[in-house]
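Reply to dn_fold:

You asked what the input looked like. This is it:
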Amino acid sequence: MDGFEGQNILFVSIDTPLYSGMPLSRLIELFEEVTEHDPEDRRIIVFDEIQYLKDWEVHLKVLTDQYPNTRFVASGSAAAALRLKSQESGAGRFTDFLLPPLTFAEFLAFRGIEGELIEVAPSGSTLRFSTPDIQRLNDEFINYLNFGGYPEAVLNESIQADVQRFLGRDIIDKVLLRDLPSLYGIQDIQELNRLFTTIAYHTGQEISLDGLAQSSGVAKNTITKYLDYLTAAFLIVRVRRVDDTGKTFQRMRNFKVYLTNPSMRSALFAQISDGDDAMGAMAETAIFSQWFHSDLMKNLHYARWKQGRTELEVDLVRVDPARLKPTWAYEIKWSDRYATDKPGELRGLIEFAKRNFAEGTPAGATTKTVATESTIDGIHIRHFPCALHCYQVGKNVAEGRAP
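and this is what came back:
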């Protein structure tokens, strides 16, 4: 860290058995004994997995007053519990930072190939960015789906070669089997595990509490609690359904559930490849995961409604919270045929645009490789490559620009 001598930086993982139950003040005393530095010096002390120390927030509150020249960083995988405790006891002393999984833009930057694959698009283009090699960008997008959400995997080829071994067990053992049960008093850990793995395998699909209860034999109120736990742990996000006019339903009987990190599916099951049936759902999950960095996430929905006997759907709809009106919508596809051969098959998007958008307002649909435009029933549709759009959303959100 710039401006700090190495001997003035301490990193300690609280879940190390040797430190079990040890007060934070004692760890600092040991640090000072070894380094022999003046505690009045500027320094940084990082306590990782701090949730494993009972009443950690009380310990840390005292230390921030005792050592005004020290900057303390407390991190842990039980993010919801950390935030709750910091808000309860650290008012005016603690600042919360949420670190979502890597965006696709960050993934390319970590691999040192962002400059090779991304260019600023010419004026008038549908997207702000372009690529000189869409096939290579798609290959990297699939790599991102498989291991790109984890910095340690991006930087370590041995982890990439066996994601299930290195990361799958970490998700199950650390979060599902240790953190959530200890924080929320969950008794049936295997039941929670089965629910999460089912959701992970079917990420991006619509779920109903009735359907889950019937298929699992678990009571609806128990499933609701489990979903709350998984959401609080930032493993999943629930997306509300709207009707064909953009109105939400009073009761959330049906909703979509997405993994917050698309790589979790590969870590738990098997790596995905271009022709797999799950590519569409995984591409959709990746797009949504870029939005987790933005406050606009709470305004994103999907639309589903009946028109006659036909069920119509739009993957992503943004609703203006002030006017309660849809402002844009698009379909997430991993195929070129809707742009080149069958744009009329985007019936849900077309009907939604007819009902909600002013004339000339374009709708959107991602493709695998093609960038083009089409007009169906008076609705203008912009088609753009999914991987490039994923890059743009993550890049712009991270830099505070509108995607």
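Residues 6-89 form a domain with the Rossmann fold fold (CATH 3.40.50.300).
Hope that clears it up.
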